[in-house]
Amino acid sequence: MAAVDRYEGHGRLDWWANSTTLVAGIDVSVVITTQGPAWEAHGRLANDEDREGFAVLCDLDPVFSFRFDDRSTITVTVHPADDHRQFRLDEFRLEPDVPPRSRAGQISAMRSATLSMMREGR
User: Fold this and answer.
1) If DSSP codes are grouped into helix, strand and coil, which group holds residue 35?
2) Which of 7, 41, 98, 103 is the most interior residue, by most CB within 10 Å?
3) Considering the entire predicted model, what is its pTM?
């Protein structure tokens, strides 16, 4: 049987509008377990007052950058629970038929358009 590694600690979910604009950073507590190449992660918001903003960002696009305490990062897809206080994380994977630069451009354009509409009150 393979050894199971476990990380339990704090981190931050960062939501980027593009490669230079950080829209929000949300402090979280997580538990990540690995067994061989597979890993599972779940967590909860550190501050309940972040719940509403977290819900909006997840609805816009659930792709975040998870930052560990040591500042290393991994791009993840967030799967929030119904109450948006708890969540599950999966490693973000590009769709095989979409080139990485195209996907990043699509995400950036969508986020920019959404943020513009929010500023204009639409």
Assistant:
1) strand
2) 41
3) 0.74
